[in-house]
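Let us begin with a simple case.
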Amino acid sequence: MKCSAIIHTYSIVARDPETGELGVAVQSHYFAVGSVVPWVEANVGAVATQAMGEPGYGRRGLDLMRAGKSAPEALAQLLADDVARETRQVAMIDSAGRVGVHTGAATVESAGHIAGDNFSVQGNMLLNGNVWPAMADAFAQTAGDLAARMLAALDAAEAAGGDIRGRQSAALVVASGKPGAPSWEKSFDLRVDDSPEPLIELRRLLGMGREMVRRGAAGAAASRGDFAAAAAELAAAGPDAPETVENMYWRAILMAVMGRVDESIPLFRQVFAHNRNWATLTRRLPKSGLFPVDPRLLDRILADSEAK
C-alpha cells in the first residue's frame, strides 16, 4: 500500500450492541475528510484510516472482515503488508464488536488511541493528549443512539482542543444493523466538506437525517394502512430536527386521508404559502394512488388553504 492522503484528524469507530449498527465519525482540518477516512458496511464492520490515510485499509479491511476475519486479525494482516505502517493511524471494528487499532510511531504528536467496549477513539496532530480520552468518556457517558453518542465524542474532542490546526470538515456514517440488511444500507451517511463550524453543520444534517428516517417509517406505516402510526411518525420532530415543509405537507396529506380535514387545512395553508407548487402536486396525487379520487375533497383543501 502507498500513502494517499495526509489526513491528520480525530475519529471514532463504534458499534451499538443493541441494534447492531456500525459507524464512524470524524472531524479534521482537511477538505472533505469524509471522502477518505470512514468506511462502513452493514453487518460487516467499520474502518477509520487517517494520519497518512490509505483507502486500501478501508476497502481491504472490510473485505477481510466480510470473509470472516476479526477486526484485530484484519488489521494485523494489512499492517504486515504495509512498509509505511508507522505513518498510519487505523481503527477497525467488526460486527461482533471486536476492535483493532494502530497508531504508528511516526504519526504527528499529539497522537494516541483508546480501545473500549464496542468502540475505539483515536487522533493525531492534536493540540494535546486530552482529546482522545475526552472522546472515550463522552461516548461512554452519553445516552441515545449510535449517531448521537459518536457526535458527542466529536464535540468532546473539539472542547478538549481538537486538531491543532483548527477545523474544516466532518463526517458521520452509520450502517444498518438489521439482520440480512444489504451491505450498502445506511442509517445515516452525512458529510460536511468545508465549513468554519463543521460539527454544528453535522448536527443540523443529523437532525434532517432523523426526519428522513421518520418519513420512511411513516411511508411504511401508510403502505400497510396504519395511517395513525404514519401521522404520529411525521409529527414526532424533536428539537434536533425542526419540521421541514415537506414533512408538514405529508402530515397534512395523511390527516386528510384519515378524515381529519379540518386539522389538515392549517398545515396545507402554511405549505402552499411557502410554495404554490405544492398545490399543483396535490392535484396530481390521486392519479398515483397517493390520495383519494375525490374532486370535492381536493377542491376544499385547495380553496380553504388559499383563504386569508
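The second case is a distinct protein. As before, the sequence precedes its C-alpha cells.
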Amino acid sequence: MLAECRRTLRATGRLVVVGMSKQGPGDPMVRVYEWAHRHFPNFLDCRPIYVRQAMEEAGFRINKALIRYMWLPVEIVLGTKP
C-alpha cells in the first residue's frame, strides 16, 4: 500500500501515516494486544507495526516521526517522496 502511495504522489509529495507501533521499549500492552489479535482477529483486525521502518522501506524520506502513548504506543510519521 505504501509503495502505491509513493508511486502516485507527485515529486516531493507528502504522506502522513498514523499507526499502532511496535517501536520503543517492550510495552506489555503491545504483547497483550498482539495475543488478542492472534486469538480474536475478527474483533482486533489490525496489529502494531514499525511505521517509520515501513515508510523508509517503501522509499519515503522521513521528515518527522513522533511516538505518543495512548494505551498503546502510536507512531505519527511524515514522509516525502524523493
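The CA atoms of residues 22 and 31 lie 9 Å apart. DSSP finds three helices and three strands in the chain.
Keep these points in mind for the review questions at the end of the chapter.
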